[in-house]
Structure formats: C-alpha cells, structure tokens
Amino acid sequence: MVDHLKKIEIDSSKSWLRFLEGDRDALGSLFRLYFSELLAYGRKFIPSDDLVKDHIQNLFVRLWEKRSQLRPVGNVKVYLLISLKHDLLQSLKAEKPRKELDERMDAGWFEISVEDFMVEKEQEAELAQKVASCLAQLTARQREVIYLRFYHNFDFPNIAEIMDMNIQSVRNLLFRTLEKIRKEVGGSDMQQSGNIELILLSLFGYSSFPTC
C-alpha cells in the first residue's frame, strides 16, 4: 500500500510539471485523481457536498489561470489540500463572526465517523464504533492530526505543512491524542488488537506508516 502511494505521488508530480508547461489534460488528471479525497477533506470543514465541489472546481480553475506564477511542489496532494483548506476557511471567515467560527472549530469540525473506516468484520465494526465515539470527544485539531496521519497516511513534515505547525508540535499533538484515545478505548479491545496506532491504521485501510 505504501509503495502504491509513493508511485501515485511520483506520477502526480510528473503531471504537475506537465500542467505547469501548459498541459490542460495533466491538470485534468490531477483533478480526477484527487477529487474524492479533496471532497472528503472539504466535508470536514463544510458539511455540504455542493459547496465543497464548487470550491474544488474553483481551485482548479484558478490553478489553470495562474499556472505561470506557480512552481514545482514537493507533494501535489499536500499542496491541493492546503489550498482547499485555505479557500474554505476564507469563505467561512467571510460568512461567520470570529467568535462563532472559533466555537465551531472547537466543537464540530473534523468529525470522523464509522463511514471513514474500512470495516469488513463484525468485530471490527464494534471496535470502529468505539473508536469513532472516542474521536468525537477530541478537539478539531486532534481529529485533524489523526485524520491526516491515519486516513491520508501522511508523514510528519506533510502534516506540519498542512496544519501550519512545526514538526515537533505535530509529534507532540499526535502523541497526546493517541494517549487520550488509548485511555478512552482501553480494555480488552486493546489487548486483543495490539496498540492504538495499528488499530487506527487498520481501520483506515493501511498496514504500515510512511517513512517519517
């Protein structure tokens, strides 16, 4: 799985370079490749498929119009997620008072539900429900670091870039968050299924981490 993701990353970097040279089809391939992941990520901020789709389409239109000002990027997917997040936050800030926006960030953002997990067995479904209930008690930033690490399988530098934090702060945030999940879930589930990192990897459909 990790090797497959690496190949996708390399291929998308090549498509990005062709796009910068004026290849519209290359940009289209990036749109098709990352649309579903951008939509899933955008839903964590705005629970409206139509609005998020509009923002994604506007993002790619803007990329094409400003391609002469753009440069090669280290990770295309990270760049697109950051760009979409920025657009969504700017849109929300324009619509809502700062206090209301801050309260929403603390309470409702980055909901992670059972639907985000890849569950095949009844035993896994029970564990997934328990983990999802625990995640619902976390702060938005705690849920975001879990989502980026385990759903997108990003390494710490990529997470730091997306969350606008330094790498050590990301490590600290993830460690504290995992400790909280471990204590909340606890019990026989942990003993039977191993550590919480492996459980989350499995629930999100991975078997190992990227190289950090």
From TrEMBL:
It comes from the Bacteria. GO terms for molecular function: DNA binding; sigma factor activity. Keywords: Sigma factor, Transcription, Transcription regulation. CDD domains: Sigma70_r4. GO terms for biological process: DNA-templated transcription initiation. Residues 129-181 form the RNA polymerase sigma factor 70 region 4 type domain. InterPro entries: RNA_pol_sigma-70-like, RNA_pol_sigma-70_dom, RNA_pol_sigma70_r4_t2, RNA_pol_sigma_r2, RNA_pol_sigma_r3/r4-like, WH-like_DNA-bd_sf. Belongs to the sigma-70 factor family. ECF subfamily. This is RNA polymerase sigma factor (Sigma-70 family). It comes from Sunxiuqinia elliptica. The lineage of its organism: Bacteria, Pseudomonadati, Bacteroidota, Bacteroidia, Marinilabiliales.
